[in-house]
């Protein structure tokens, strides 16, 4: 399933865009969520943004998760290259992925005081 987003400045000029594909997510809502998450990841710390989507289901899903999250998430640090199976496999997968085209290229000129619109 294809996804895409763009970030516009306050003059409606495109300053960053990305298109990609997501596999194994059979719904449009999941694809929209993936696009929104990847767009959020490129924002600078403290950056303000309006996320604009034509999917009410996506908005409802995010709002539901924000208010009803019941997952218990624990972050665990492991030593790199210490033969922890999942970590080693993920490192190998990421290394193989470096040969694929990059869709995110963040310029340092983004200003934190602007509110960007993400579509």
What does this structure look like?
One of its GO terms (molecular function) is nucleic acid binding. InterPro entries: RNaseH-like_sf (IPR012337), RNaseH_sf (IPR036397). This protein has 119 residues and is α+β, with helices and mostly antiparallel strands. It is built from three helices and four strands. The chain has a four-stranded mixed sheet with strand order 2-1-4-3. α1 (28-41) crosses α2 (56-68). The chain is globular and about 50 Å long. The protein starts with a strand and ends with a strand.
Structural class: alpha+beta
In total, the number of strands is: 4
The unreliable regions are: 104-109
Strand content: 15-25%
Largest sheet: 4 strands, mixed
Helix content: 25-40%
Number of domains: 1
Report, as a whole number of angstroms, the end-to-end distance. 17 Å
Rounded to an integer in angstroms, the radius of gyration calculated over CA atoms is 17 Å
Q: Number of helical segments?
A: 3
Rounded mean pLDDT score = 75
Q: What order do the strands of the largest sheet run in, or round the barrel if closed?
A: 2-1-4-3
Taken in chain order, the helices and strands follow as EEHEHHE
Shape: globular
InterPro entries: RNaseH-like_sf, RNaseH_sf
GO molecular function: nucleic acid binding
Keywords for this entry:
119 residues; RNaseH_sf; alpha+beta; 4-stranded mixed sheet; 19% strand; 4 strands; nucleic acid binding; RNaseH-like_sf
Summarize this, please?
Helices cover 34% and strands 19% of the residues. It has 3 helices and 4 strands, in the order ββαβααβ.
